[in-house]
Predict the structure.
Amino acid sequence: MRNTPSIRGPVVPSRGPLRPLGTDEVRVTGGFWASRQRVNGEQTLAHALEWMDSLGWTANFATVATGSGSRERKGREFSDSEVYKIVEAMSWEHGRSPDSELDARVDALTAAFAAAQAEDGYLSTSFGRDWQRPRHSDLAWGHELYCTGHLVQAAVARTRTAGAGPLLEVARRAADHVCERFQPDGTGVCGHPEIETALVELARLTGEQRYLDQAALFVERRGHRGLPAHEFGWSYFNDDVPVRKATVLRGHAVRSLYLACGAVDVAVETGDDDLLAAVAEQFDRAWARRTYLTGGMGSRHQDEAFGDDFVLPADRAYAETCAGVATVMLAQRLLLATGESRYADVTDRVLHNLIAGAIGDDGRSFFYANTLHQRTPARPWHGGERLDVVGGLRAPWYEVSCCLPNIARLLASLSSYLVTADDTGLRLHQYASCDVETALADGRRVGVEVRTSYPEGGDVAVRVRRGGGRWSITLRVPGWAAGAVLVVGGERRPVAPGDVVVDRDWAVGEEIRLELPMRPRFTWPDPRIDAVRGCVAVERGPVVLCAESLGEHDLDVLRVHTGHEPEQTGDAAVVRARFDVPADASWPYGEPPARPGAAVALRLTPYHRWARRGPSTMRVWLPAD
Amino acid sequence: MRNTPSIRGPVVPSRGPLRPLGTDEVRVTGGFWASRQRVNGEQTLAHALEWMDSLGWTANFATVATGSGSRERKGREFSDSEVYKIVEAMSWEHGRSPDSELDARVDALTAAFAAAQAEDGYLSTSFGRDWQRPRHSDLAWGHELYCTGHLVQAAVARTRTAGAGPLLEVARRAADHVCERFQPDGTGVCGHPEIETALVELARLTGEQRYLDQAALFVERRGHRGLPAHEFGWSYFNDDVPVRKATVLRGHAVRSLYLACGAVDVAVETGDDDLLAAVAEQFDRAWARRTYLTGGMGSRHQDEAFGDDFVLPADRAYAETCAGVATVMLAQRLLLATGESRYADVTDRVLHNLIAGAIGDDGRSFFYANTLHQRTPARPWHGGERLDVVGGLRAPWYEVSCCLPNIARLLASLSSYLVTADDTGLRLHQYASCDVETALADGRRVGVEVRTSYPEGGDVAVRVRRGGGRWSITLRVPGWAAGAVLVVGGERRPVAPGDVVVDRDWAVGEEIRLELPMRPRFTWPDPRIDAVRGCVAVERGPVVLCAESLGEHDLDVLRVHTGHEPEQTGDAAVVRARFDVPADASWPYGEPPARPGAAVALRLTPYHRWARRGPSTMRVWLPAD
């Protein structure tokens, strides 16, 4: 089907088996994500702006606009991108929940961007002026095109939620400059992919072929070792192997995932099925071999990179929050391009574990890295010293704070990830209480009301609010939900994981129900994942549970009794366990094992709730007895 | 006892329960270490000099001596230290095996150092000239005092092997400048400890109290967060907690170990038993909780640092070679200060696994990091691109090549680590075929001939060559050697791990024998070491074995049958094992386990021999069935 470019969502392919619904067509009305969206709008946006104002990142635009080198530019070379990302988040939020203050702030920041933009469209506060390094003199690390990509995405969000205006003009001029500078017979890619997916979306929005062509060029140019050698290797930049020849995501996780997003976008718009298949295979392999149970990607600290297959240490797991956001972005693109609901399973897992865990209850603190094992309680932060990204407590800010605006733009646009339309009706991919209304391909308007306590509960009720007559409602049965039951017209029938299509003559007011089994369950790792051999995790629905200790237990010596299934309690579980008494030897090898402690009932907690009650130790993977 | 400062060894405390023997008193005559010493002298020294010449590191001294900024200084800010370290190695080697070429090269380099030295004694090729950063303007990262420390150690080696000369003069002037600049009422420590232990040794050599005082000051000054904050935290520099208050080695492993060496030296020379006890406790705890089976220390890549207790991932284990050298340095100091033979156990383990593994057969290649698990075969290096320090193949050089000259100086002075004298006789700590002769405390000259095939074999024969009459020979029974037998006068008796003293009236020609059990054995990890839970290692004598595959096995799916003890074959072992067939799922969690493969006999190999036949996969820790 062909889609209109004005759909209110971050990714609107011009064709594909599924049409995304905009944030005006799906409105989250309550539950798990509604409260997070509310906090995002009420707290996170303001918090991020306050920090970026106080650090001088927003003021950089005015600073450089004055043309004076006497006032120092603040922040890292990519700080512009954080401002653009928060403008994108504000745009989605203003679209979701109109707010004149947000609106005015977006306009004011847009004016600052415009003032800092050069006559020829180039826009960066870091490069190009007399007292700065020359434009594009450091493609590997300068992040100029990366920043421009975020500017473009902000403009897309603004245009789709508030109509064309000055931000779109700024972005188009910047994009035009990129196209001219990096034209077909030129060379060069950005060390950090991002411009690719942004340019395709701008092409979708504006209908301008040149943006798509430039994005396709950037995708094809990468992988030929055009960037300078670095100790992390060319794979860090994904510049080691051409995109269509690679077999797995690798290198810097966020770079790799953003590039894959751009490649899918290019493939969809150009009908390049080989490229689409190549990226899907890369993602599928990374998902099968390089992903944490929480959906986190990228295990290495040193280069924020994917490890080799099955190298997934729980302790000091990096699993950057931005990589989680990027995984949701890529999964959505693959879902829209292929119609395969397993990509919605990906989003479900990443959202309910990594993303839900990364942001603090107050919306003003966040994790940069998302470990699966905290051995020692974090020291609370009192300001002053630099924050370690693996501190074990959500921090208000980091020197590099890409993650918070990234979460903010995802949450503000979240409703566009929940439901799509296909040729015959609606497809529900993510379960949240929401009201949905859209026009089907044949022009009929249909609407449903979804009510659920997911992920705490497994009951999903879908009531037809509009659109009597025959059309279909397709429900995703998550991969973990063996034993799910569908109730249609009072009739219960078991449904297997995958898509279940209910294609019938609807009467307005009619309700169907999906019952997902929410028993907590043991989950065993592939034996090739050395780091968690001999351990078991407990999951409940899409939610990974963990053991957390505020000092009452030493989780280093935990042993879980796996002969007894975990029992549900609230939205979590209790397992039978013991705490061993270790042999404290002078050498930790060759000694007899620890003495078994007495049996206890150990209450687990959802992973996304850990470290919310203060410094604690935590483990997702529980040593099995 | 009080020792003379002229003993030919790198560490000669003025007092303590043990007196080290010099390289002239203990000569390795054959076997495992003799061949490595020979290759070190014949190949490694020349190889390192060739690289440092070709990279311009040696020429830096002449470059800056001309006073011209027009010629660019080469290498990192600490490259002087590599030149000093190789001069130290050359000095020990010339002492061990006189060589006029080596001698002349040391003199020539010494002349270059002298020419580059400022009038006031300051010596660095990186700082202080018009076109360079000011002296001591970057104590955290500038490495000036670190370099001076290595200069001093080189001068100590040269003086103890060839007598006082111009290198000692250069070093004294540099050390005097350090004492003046960093005098008692001043502040400042170097970001990389090293000067502390060097200054104490210079004090021992020269009898100058000021060097000892300055070293003591540097030790006391550290730990008060005087260095600037860094994202790795103050612990990286060991500047987080005063040395005498810390409870464990932490932060950057080499920095931590070098500092500990200096602290022990200061403690011994000043009679500061509290400081000695504090450092011993820190090392003991690090050995018990933060050390790999190979004796490697420092598990983190990002900051080359110790991880938390029991965080010892085998895969991408960092275990820097320099940290191994530093562990031997510290263990030797603790052995000499305490007389406790468990510190000789430490040296035994580090030497026969980490150090023996780090250097290539040709003496012209080496590991920087020493992983315990290689999942994918390394790509051979063909020049051009930067070498990853965890490449899985020994490389000829790295951008930071501290490790090779560090191994070289250790191997060239190795005989000084084997034997000591105590009040009543000789103590044999490390077993290598060697000839020993020295004077006891009462002036009597005694000598023994040690013949052994250790570590391949467990037989150690000690024949008295000189010194009839009553004196003692003390033999170390390694911690792993339960079931050892001592044969004295034809009589066999079991001896327990620890020291066994044979105190008797010797006749010249008389021989005693120690028989160490060399059956390969399974070794289990402390259950708190998550990374190797469910795995077992195989050791034989002091040697850690490993499974290595050049493609014939997929070690990711190995399972070892632990119901059957490993069987010896040659100097290694065979275990019963199987290779499972993994379930190749789209998601690596929650699936049924792999299908068991057929039983095979798997031949293991000494860890120190891995990656010598080409790119391979390897694992020390073998998943147990």
